[in-house]
Amino acid sequence: MKENCLQRIKTLYLGFFLVFFAQTSFPQEQTNDALFRALGGMQGVEKIVNDFVPLVITDKRISADFKDTNLKRFAMLLSEQICMLSGGPCVYTGDNMQLVHRGMRINNAKFNALVEQLQAAMDKNKVSPATQNKLLAILAPMQRDIVTQ
Length: 149
What we know:
By secondary structure, the chain is mostly helical. The chain has helices spanning 2-25, 34-38, 41-58, 71-85, 97-101, 108-124, 129-139, 143-146. The two termini are 29 Å apart.
């Protein structure tokens, strides 16, 4: 179990590095919907998000950060965001990550806890590790806008 966790962390950090390198060296827009389809389309994205939200609000490491959150709106916006970023037809209608998380005092431990819960939700929905890594690599750059501590 511990080895599996360490392997996932190593994979996650490798994904962060690859995305950072790709974005700084070769800026590009998502041009196809392969990742969106691999996630199961909109139905798959919504299932992942609907499994993710309860995990987040029951995780003692991060639940306090969500105590005043409209969870229905949060789930809707997260679904939009994942859909759009994975190449789906959605448009994200929420605010940017820096504005949303301003003053929340999010540190790396909390960010990593959130990522763990997203991975757990994807595992529950039988999303392949390769697909998980692709999504996490797209989401990883948001860390610099979310983590302020």
